[in-house]
Structure formats: structure tokens, C-alpha cells
Amino acid sequence: MTDTLFDYFSCGELPTPTLPLDEARALMHEVYGVEVELQSLGSQQDQNFLVRPARGSEPLGVLKISNPVFSETEIEMQDAAAAAVARAEAGLRIPEIVAGPNGPMTGWWETTQGRLHARVISFVPGSTLTGSDYLSPRVVERLGELAAAVSVALADHTHPASGRVLQWDLRHAERVIAEIAATEPDPEVRDVAARATAAAVAALAPVADRLPRQMGHFDVTDDNVLRPDGVETLPDAVIDFGDVIDSWAVGEIAVTVSSVLHHDGATYASTLPAIAAFDRRRPLSDDEITALWPLVVLRGVVLVVSGRQQVRLDDANDYASGALDREFEILRRAISVPIEVATARIRHALGRGVAAAPVWTGDSLLPPTVRPVPLDATTLSPLSDEGAWLDDGALERAALRLLDEGADAVVLPALVPVLLGAPARTPEEPATVPTAASVWFAEKTALVLPADADGRDGEIVLPGGRGILRISAASAEIPARTRTRVMLTVPGVVDVPDAVRPSDVPGWRALLGDAAPALGIAAPSIDDDDLLERREAVVAEVQEHYYSRPPRIERGWREYLIGVDGRVYLDMVNNVASVGHAHPRIAAAVSRQTRLLNTNSRFHYAAITEYGERLAATLPDELDTVFFVNSGSEAVDLAIRLAMAATGRQDVVAMAEAYHGWTYASDAVSTSIADNPHALETRPDWVHTVDAANSYRGRHRGADAARYAPEAVARLRALAAVGQAPAAFLSETFYGNAGGVALPDGYLREVYAAVRELGGLAIADEVQVGFGRLGSWFWGFRQQDVVPDIVAVAKSIGGGFPLGAVVTRREIADRYRTQGYFFSSTGGSPLSSVVGSTILNIIEDEGLQENARVVGAHLTARLEALGERHPLVGTVHGSGLYLGLEFVRDRDTLEPATEETAAICDRLLELGVIMQPTGDHQNVLKIKPPLCVSRESADYFADMLDRVLSTGF
What we know:
By secondary structure, the protein is of the alpha+beta class. Helices cover 34% and strands 16% of the residues. The chain is built from 27 helices and 38 strands. Strands 12, 13, 15, 17, 18, 19, 21 and 23 form an eight-stranded mixed beta sheet that branches. A hairpin with a 2-residue loop joins strand 6 and strand 7 (114-121). Helix 5 (173-181) runs parallel beside helix 9 (286-313), helix 6 runs antiparallel to helix 9 (286-313) and helix 20 (708-721) packs parallel to helix 21. The protein is flat and about 100 Å long. The two termini are 45 Å apart.
């Protein structure tokens, strides 16, 4: 230990202290008067132990044996900085020196390795973010908040030791890298480090002298923050003040965001929530924004070369060797885009000014006789209809088709998302935005080039104001029917990918413009997408949308949903689009019928009769009379009114925890607290409930679930005994709201018999589970081997079209006359009837019920296998393609994992899967994709779910 401030360039190597554990334990007793047990902890340059009392289990603190190169003044500075942050930020947990029997446990030890400084700091419970698991945007944001809090707390703090020189001080990064890289044996590592350093130093140079300085922690990273034990908690503790120095203030957030980059799925854009949070608390100057990403790159290089050096010096340092891969990942991701792009993206996220994109101001390069047409390859383009976008060659074929139809030239604009040829099922946002405009000519064409055009390296370069036009052609003679790329860049840009991710476009616009005007086509206008804000301003708040910041979906195909950015999502939740999105047979049937007739159902036309016959034919013979409505809510409402009319009674018994609709009657019998927290206490007095027959988490579980039916029967009889004999018993035939839980065997048989014995009717709500979704049964009641008196159905029967139906016996239907007449303007209209018949044809012709059985069984097996590896999985419910994956925190208590389920759904969206929770505790994934879903898509869903459960959410 020395009194001289540490100077890395004078000291160089930093071998970690290696005091034997037994000696450290003996010195704890000798010097501090405590008998303890020690557990070694990792460290880059110090030696750390977790300290527990010899006869206790709760940690006493952390023993830190400082590297002997650091002076006592520097160690005192670390403790003073921690105390300053603790005073300024009462909400943060900050470690402090622990007092023992002999006073504060800090001081000098005489050891076999010389004189060492040792101190015990308080143990801060919780867990770090160490490792490379996924960090949610909110956790990343919290890291930025913590960095800002520390920065603000230390902004006016000073200390005599703050001028020490550490290898982690980014002001000295260039020199640190140069010295360590000279000893790096791997030439590839040296080359990567040199190129990254050169780019960062060049970007930093114009502002370096103007960057403000202050004392800071400069290591608020995933390793040095802790969050309390619990579910979805956020970090609230900062530890390890070992790198406190005076340096560039912006280095605080640069170090923090660099630690985000190695986590699962992270990109440079993943750090934006942290940067924005830092800026809100401690505003970044324009110079600091310019410096930020170069410093992140330099931090990455320093981590790589320093970590590798430390391992060469101390190959027994498991902490250093274990960090090598993630440190290189930090650097790799930091340099994955040019610094100018990252900086522009940061400016855009912070609402700061971004340099205007280059604009072509010259004349068109096309001969006057050539008239180009634009190629619309976006999500909304008709060229993408009927799944045409799935083919890798779709874009090329679309361009050539336009040439065949008479176009002289076809131009694809730059910087506009392209769906044609976009990939499906991608865990990362795909690069769907071309960086260059493209042109195809019908005939060989000579471009009209200005005199200053420069041809070299297989391209033609044309200066034009602030932009440079680069043409991917060896000469001005462009061959026919061949794609030629034309890119507009600022001067000096070299490596530009053919396509970039849509979220990266605000960054790339600092370097790229659209060359379409040089090809005779106006550049498409760029508007901020304020559609969600407009929706929320005009649509009732209670008419909610999925996700807090949902993707804008404007196209579907089979089991896919497609955003305007060209991102393709796997839809695993949409039982509305039963036969798949945008089915061409439905589109053709709708188109044809709207050319013929669409009116209300009081007119006489064939479609309503033909569809009614087809629908009734799928049911038992006695269910022969159909009412047509527009939705499941209307269907359930009408079914209840039918039962009341047929029996002359008003009371209805429904299963608890179910959802049946939003109309007065269907809402009255809905008792799911997930849909209405006050459902049970706000029911009208004519509604009565029986226990939810949930054999997994209900009152009776497993074999005891057989008790539900006798108890329900007793409830029916008790009501009758007090003069409230029910008009009907109503339930889903498969417990859909809980995630597809099968009712106990024989449940409906016993309950239906009892309600009929009492003069009531049995109503089956098949809105969610009917129409082949269960695979082995077309209707859910078939699984229970019963026949209801009234069936309510919707959703699947319309394939996304507003169509519902109630099917019953003729004598029950005729009793409705006691309530007046029935009329639904568009229920059973020519158009809705044709759609309904077409849906039935598709299910039969394409074998979709069989697909539900086969793919559903495969998916069930995949999900059950997840339960063998991930304790959060409680069980798999359901049948066919109506499945529920229930998450629990404890498989014995079945404590619902509500927050985890919501977070899993959000993470799945990032991985390209649409999924939502269901159930009263919102802890069940409702897995009900279009019936056409493929085995490959089912596997993708299971794989992504496995990734989420393995790497975090």
C-alpha cells in the first residue's frame, strides 16, 4: 500500500490479491474481533469475500481486500463517495462500513502478502443483473435512472484523490488500448480493437476538450446494481465504488449502457431507454451526445483488451476469464452500426436535432424517353396479397411483371420498408428497409451522366450538393431487366448494408437519402406515425388495444400478422381469424356477393337458408332451428332470452369465473374478475353461480374435481326449493376463459339432467371453443357426450366477419314470440351468410379440424416438455388448438405468476409472437391460433417460449 495516487501508466499490470481464505478469516478475528465464515467472490482487481458470522446464516457484509497499488486516500475517497450518494439519494441502497466489536471494520492488515487494506462493507441483499439474460426496457431505463442519480449526487463532490489515473477512465482510453494491445497475441483482436478505436477517437476529437468533468462512480453496470428479491422488481441499490474518479461526466452513462449490450437480444437501440432516462434527470449537452457512442465503443475496446490481459496475468481469475465472451459481445454490438448512425438515433430518441438527410438536387439520370413507374413493395401493396411476399424472389418478380405490363423502368424507393421477400418467424426485427433505390429497365438503357461522374471499383460516383450518388454499375450502359442499386449518401460513407431495420432508419437518415428523384420518381413523404395517439384521442378508453405500444398491423396471411414496417408476427392468439387471415376464398366470396346483393335478413334470398341448413347439419338432429346475430355477446344474450321465454322463468345459473359477453344479459352472467373486478358483487339478483369446475386450481382438484357436478346439482335444487327454479344453466363446454380447461368427465351430463329435471334448459356457450378448434370434437359439448338445448356460437364461424348464431329446437325457438318479434339487420344477411358457408367449406376442404388435432397434439407435447425444464410452468390445459399454458410461482400452492405472464407476453412480442394472458389471475397464455397454423409455426412458438423462460423476461 502506498500514499501515492495510483497512475495506471506508471503501474501497468494489476495482479489481484490472493490472500488465503483461512488467513483472511483469522485476521478478521484478530483485528476486528469477529469469528466468521468467508466465501470467495469475484473481482477484477481486488479480493472480495462474503462474510457470515461463524454461528449465523445471514451475511454480515462483504470483506474487500484492496489491491495494494491503491493508496489509503483513494480507498477513503471511495467510501466518501458512497456516503455522498447515500445522503443525496435516500431511496437508494448504498453499502457502508460495518462496525464490529472493536469499532468500524476498516484498516490495515499485516499479511503473508505484505501490508493490505481490508474493510467490511454492509451486505446489500438482492440480486445483480450479472450474466447475459434478457433485460426488459423498464430495467434498462432504471439503469439510466440510477446512473443519473449517482451523477447528480456527485456533481459537486470533490476529493484530493479524484485525480488518480485508472485504466477505466475513458479520457485515457486511447492510450490504455494502445499499451495493452501491444501485448495482445491475437492479430484479429488487435485489428478489431484498432479499427474501432480509430473510428471512436475521430468522432470524439471535435468535442473532447469541451466535455464537462466531475467526480463519478463510472461503473454503474449490470454487475454493480441490485434489485430486491421478488417478482419484476427494479434495481434500487448501487455497489462497488472502486472506480470513483474525476472524468468526463458523460462517461457515467456511457459505461452504464455498454453493460446492457451483451444481454440476450440487445442491440445498440436497446440502450435508448437508459440514455433517455439519464437525460431526463441529468440533461446531456449537444457535445455530450456527440461523445456518448464513441465512449461506448472505447469502453468496449478497453474491456476486451484489459480482460484478456488480466487472464494472461492471472489465469486463475475466474471472474475475469468468465467475462471475456460478454466483453467481446459488448464491443461487437457497439460497432455493429457506424457511430454516426448510433449518435443520430440517440438524438432522435431524445428529441434533439438530427442532421438533414442528403437530397438529390440534380437532374434525372434517365433519358427523356424513359418513363419510370414506382414499385410499391410495402405491407399495404396489392403485390403482397395472398402471401406473395413469402417468396424470396417476390420483389424481383414484381418488378419484372411491371416491365412486362409496359413500364419503361421500375423504381423501388430507398428507406421505405419492403414486405416483398421479407422473412417470417424472426426473433429479431428484420432488415426490411433498403438503403438504396433500385431500378429495372425494360431495355438496355444509357444513363444520362454529368461530366463530373467518376467510375471506379464497379460503381459510378456522382457528386450532388451534400450528397454523393453511388450507382452499382460498371458503366452508364445498364442492361435490361437487371436490378441496379442507386444510393445517395453523405460524403465519406463507405460500408452501408443493403437493408437496415426499420427502427434504425432515424439513425441512418443522417447518412442516407433517397435516390429515387435521380431516377425520375419523387421520394415518398415521411410522416411521423401518430396513429396510436389519434386512436386514443377518438376511441373510448375502455375499448382497449393489446400492448402499451403496439405494432401497427395492416396485413394478415394464414397464421401471420404483418406490421407496416415489414415485420411479420406469428399470431398464436387469434381464434377470430379461424381459417387464417386474408383467406382468398373468403375475399372472393365477399367480393362476389357485394356485387350481387347485401341487405337485411327480412328479404327472401338463398344464402340464409343454405347457410342455416349447413350450420344445423353440424349439430345433433334435434338442434334444427337457427337465429342469426352479429357477435358472441349477442348470441349469448339471445340464448338467455330464449330460455326465459321458453320456461317463463327469470333465474339463470352460470359457472363462476367465466366471460360470456358485454351486452346486458351476457355481461350479467359473466363473473370473471379479470374482465370486471367487481363482477361477483354487481350481479343482478336473477343470476346465480356455481363453482368454476377447474380441476387444476379450483376448490376441488385432481380426482376430487368429480365433486363439482353434485355440488352444482345441489345448488340448482336449492334454488328451486326457494322458488327460484332456473330458466337455464349456462356454461362454456370447455372452460375457455381459464385457458381451455376441460370440465371434469360427466360434469355436463349430471348438471344438464338436473336442470332439465327442474324444468330448465341447458345452454352451451361455444363461442370460443366450437367449430373444430378442439381437434377431436367439432363442438365442445361432444367431449362431454351431451346435447344442449341451446347453442350460442360466434368468432370462428365468421373468420373475422361479424357473425354469430343461436341454434336450438323448433319448440324453444317458437316460444320467443312471447317476448315479441326478433330481427337483426345484418345477422344472416346475404353477405354474412355467404361468409359463414365459405368458412364451413374451408374447414372441410382444408382439413382444418384434423390440423387442429395433429398440430395441437404436437404443440401440447412441446409445451409439456417445457414444464419439465422450467418450474414456472404449472400445467398445460386444453385440446387441439385451444390450449392454455398456466404459470405459477409454486407448483404446490399454485400461486399465480401474474406479473411474469404479462412480461412473458411482452418479450414474446419482441421475438415476433403475438400472445396474451387469460384467466381470473391473468397467468395463463391463451393459445388459440388460426386453425391453419403449421407445425413449423407451432415449433417456433415453443422455441421462443423456451428462450424467454431460459433467458428472462
